[in-house]
Amino acid sequence: MTIAEASRKLAERKISPVELAKAHLERIDQLDPALSAFVTVTPERALADARESEERIMRSGPKTPLDGIPIAHKDVFCTAGIRTTAHSRLLQDNIPQADATVVTKLASAGTVMLGKLATLEFALTGPSFDLPWPPARNPWNLDHFTSGSSSGTAAAVAAGLVLGGTGSDTGGSIRGPAAACGVTGLKPTYGRCSRAGVIPLAHTLDHTGPMAWTAADCALLLQQMAGFDPDDPASARESVPDFSAELGRSVRGLRIGVVRHFHEVDKPVAPAVAKGIETSIEILRSQGALIRDVTLSPLKAYSAANRVIVHSEALAVHEHWMRTRPGDYGRRLRNRLLLASTLTAADYIQAQRRRRELCREMAAAMTDVDILLTAAAADEAPLMTDISLWDGLLSANFSSPWSQSGYPAMTVCSGFGESGLPIGVQLGGRPFAEATLLRVAHILESETHWRNVRPALANPVPAAPPLPVAPPRPL
Amino acid sequence: MQERLSRDEFAVVIRRSGVALTSEDIDELYQGYGLFEEVVKELQRPTAIGTDQAVLFAAEGGQCR
Predict the structure, then answer these.
(1) Fewer Cβ close by (within 10 Å): the C or N end of chain B?
(2) What is the mean pLDDT of residues A231-242?
(3) DSSP label at B31?
(4) What average pLDDT is seen over chain B?
């Protein structure tokens, strides 16, 4: 079930918010011991939210399309009275006094909060087994990584434990896991959604955004998440359009640039990923979009600037704890922050200067096209055991151009690879043109059957363990 | 590329963090440092003089405008 489908049924009073919440809580009970998507489940809060929603809907109808919809938040979003850990021992007893702005907005929309979702420690590095909670596992194959850092959100959406959720994205942390787990993830324009009350990773790069099964669902979530927030100094004073308005509209005449050198030269991709890109291009071309190749700087230029900025800014966030509680970090993040201490002020300045140049390049490219299309990742999600200690430093990242520029970008499932795990394409748009991105993503989803395929794990819930871990079967 | 810090210099810098590190830890970290240096090399410039202004935030403001 998608958010849009559930929303219709709730409005028609064909399903009850309380029963919907109970069904998802039961599913979490049965599946999450294997998935580890949740750090904290909040059944009492969920049922209280659901009862309120039910009374409201019975009395006067839903107050928004998200009224009664079960969601959960990445565990870097502060939740008043509910533990917010950033998946770290340093914050394992942290009970915030206030909600993050985005959490408040989604609660005000009538959502039902099921709990807090796994991340990488403080949203950086890779899967760690020396933290108080295990890393989330990929529902398409539990031996594989979810990518990160919005790992739990992607896993929970794919497995049907939640209908949608929040993510944060500094260097691809929404788009990467969305691609790896076969869900839809949107990094809005920098400043579109508030970061107030979200545990920071890198202040000049941090974004928040929605993750769900479809583009239409992301539009519904973004509608409630977006808007100016005086508590976030980077928040944009932009009006919030109807993000669903362009869904179903034609792409005829839309100019789509393909950054072919990214996936053919800079970071060659697996054959299935290349096929997914070509299929996406053909779908859009057949619907009247104008396709052309676009050349940008090599992908590694974007990734280099991103890495130096992320690590420098992350060290600024963590410097005090690195001096006072270094043993409370997992090995991966502690090592990474130690290395960050070798970066100089000059390195950071050079990275920011390069970033300005790359932003200008992106702005110039976007005067001739409406959308840029690239791979979302080079291949399917790797095995957990194949993630090196220095993962993320070793090769360029398709997400970086949009992390650096702050332009909006999203990933959409474009099929499955040789091992049966999902692959994706990434769409990048103009500043604050999320509705156009969603329109294109919706077309790609509507013209393929990938949204009809769920992980075997997420098919009808088994009555008893063991959990089925069969490979996915694309239609 | 010649790393900016030798293994011994690196050990001194890293130990400034106050984190207790064994020689093996330093060896492991020094491998990662080599990767960091490759990233930094991408950003280095031949000169600070020229038309390339040291602009961090453009006059129009924000990354997205």
Answers:
(1) N
(2) 96
(3) H
(4) 77
Size of interface A-B (CB pairs under 8 A): 99
First and final C-alpha spacing in chain A: 18
Catalytic site positions of A: 74, 149, 173
Contacts of A301 in chain B (CB under 8 A): 42
CA A475 remoteness from chain centre: 25
Q: What ipTM goes with this model? A: 0.85
Residues 6+ apart with CB under 8 A from A462: A30, A468
Residue A399 above 60 pLDDT? yes
Measured from the Cβ of residue A265, the count of other Cβ atoms closer than 10 Å reads 10
Q: Which residue has the higher pLDDT, B38 or A199?
A: A199
Query: Given CB atoms, is B26 within the 8 Å cutoff of chain A?
Result: no
Q: Smallest Cβ distance to B19: which of A308, A326, A405?
A: A326
Which residues of chain A from 214 to 243 reach within 8 Å of chain B, CB to CB? 234, 236
Could you report the per-residue pLDDT of A124-145, keeping only the tens digit for each? 999 999 999 999 999 999 999 9
Q: pLDDT value at position A414?
A: 98
Instruction: Look up the pTM and report it.
Output: 0.94
Give the β-pairing of A371-375 and A255-258. Answer: parallel
Distance CA A175, CA A210 (A): 10
Q: Residues A79, A99: contact at Cβ < 8 Å?
A: yes
Helical (H) or strand (E) element with B17: none
* Contact between A417 and A312 (Cβ < 8 Å): no
User: Both tokens of residue A348?
Assistant: 């950071």
Residue closest to A172 by CA, chosen among A364, A377, A318, A351: A377
